[in-house]
Amino acid sequence: MSISHALLGLLEAGPRHGYDLKRTYDEQFGQDRPLRYGQVYSTLSRLLKNGLVEAAGVEAGGGPDRKRYTITDAGITDVETWLRTPEEPVAHLQNILYTKVVLALLSGRDAADVLDVQRAEHLRVMRELTRRKRAGDLVDALIGDYALFHLEADLRWLELAAARLDRLAGKLAAAHTSHGSPEGGQA
């Protein structure tokens, strides 16, 4: 996620100081990855330098004074452009799980064990997400559903890969033999 755009979007509601931006960001988007204060202030510094936000005064409080920021017209245009630009769907054509399966087969290890361990981990995470969804609010439910749907797709792939292990092992063995392995007679 673009932290810059998220902070700009939060500033559209009105001027805020960094602490308030961090708190709101963490409540809405940072369930598993809250922002560090350094990230907030370095991002605000870049946005200020690029003319997307400006200082809107200073609030005095019990601690250090807090600078308030407001979004500029250029910042609003930037957020609007970002919101209207579709994200490119990511097709993981050769992901880590596939690599582990192939390497297990090539090394003579049991690739089914690799898939079983991964399946168990996916199911563990899915149970945890389901608990969080049930105990949480609408935001937790929407974020949880998104993650669960992705994990379900991974599980379908794990099942399909398990069903095709023998064929994949045969293909890899044939390729290995034809590319110079001792069994193929080449050195």
TrEMBL record:
<dbReference type="InterPro" id="IPR005149">
    <property type="entry name" value="Tscrpt_reg_PadR_N"/>
</dbReference>
<protein>
    <submittedName>
        <fullName>PadR family transcriptional regulator</fullName>
    </submittedName>
</protein>
<dbReference type="Pfam" id="PF03551">
    <property type="entry name" value="PadR"/>
</dbReference>
<dbReference type="InterPro" id="IPR036388">
    <property type="entry name" value="WH-like_DNA-bd_sf"/>
</dbReference>
<dbReference type="InterPro" id="IPR036390">
    <property type="entry name" value="WH_DNA-bd_sf"/>
</dbReference>
<feature type="domain" description="Transcription regulator PadR N-terminal">
    <location>
        <begin position="7"/>
        <end position="77"/>
    </location>
</feature>
